[in-house]
Design brief:
Length: 211
């Protein structure tokens, strides 16, 4: 089938994907945190983790499971509270951190491994109930049920790339040497602010309704 037949739908998905990616939220805070405190590489790998998590949402949306999740109080609550607990845990660790920055501005005693950075980004996005609700809305109100699976996978790729590109830019910004140098002198305060914000997001996620 000609992709031009789905051009209006593709444009709509692309615009929504961009706005979804750049809208402030948990992913933004996590990427900023990892980039500032663990370096540029950690931020970029966390962005990759978010991109990988997008495919989890794409998969269950195409399979029609998003509707089941949104209608099931038990399933939605499980995702919601797991996500909330994870954010509160990371927020608490950040808030109580006693680490020090090296001359380059990277946390010396707690530098994230590549896998650890990917895992942080992946879990943060995968367990975000607001992302689940976003995909439910997108694949039920924008994407036509008759749209071929390969086209829906293309939409998934667009959403994935939008997130990876945007959060890579965020990582590059927050890990810029000039900016990190300024953060360096106020790291303890910034850790407490970022930790508090993550804990706040965790509480907000716990209060999220699927209605």
């Amino acid at each position: 089938m000609d992709i031009l037949n789905y051009l209006p739908e593709l444009i709509s998905v692309s615009v929504i994907a961009i706005f979804m990616a750049i809208s402030p939220g948990v992913d933004f805070i996590m990427i900023s945190r990892n980039s500032m405190f663990h370096g540029r590489q950690s931020g970029l790998y966390s962005a990759l983790g978010i991109g990988l998590a997008i495919w989890i949402h794409v998969a269950y949306s195409i399979a029609g499971l998003a509707i089941i999740i949104s209608k099931s109080i038990v399933l939605f609550s499980l995702i919601k509270y797991m996500g909330a607990a994870y954010l509160i845990y990371i927020g608490y660790k950040t808030f109580t951190s006693k680490s020090k920055l090296s001359a380059e501005g990277v946390t010396s005693e707690a530098k994230l491994s590549r896998f650890g950075a990917v895992k942080l980004g992946f879990i943060t996005n995968a367990l975000n109930p607001k992302t689940t609700l976003f995909f439910l809305s997108l694949f039920t109100q924008v994407v036509n049920p008759s749209t071929p699976v390969w086209v829906q996978l293309l939409y998934g790729l667009i959403i994935c790339l939008a997130h990876v590109v945007w959060f890579s830019i965020v990582s590059l910004f927050f890990s810029h040497p000039a900016l990190v140098k300024k953060f360096n002198t106020h790291k303890q305060k910034i850790e407490k602010v970022v930790g508090s914000v993550l804990i706040g997001f965790g509480v907000k996620v716990a209060l999220t309704s699927n209605s």
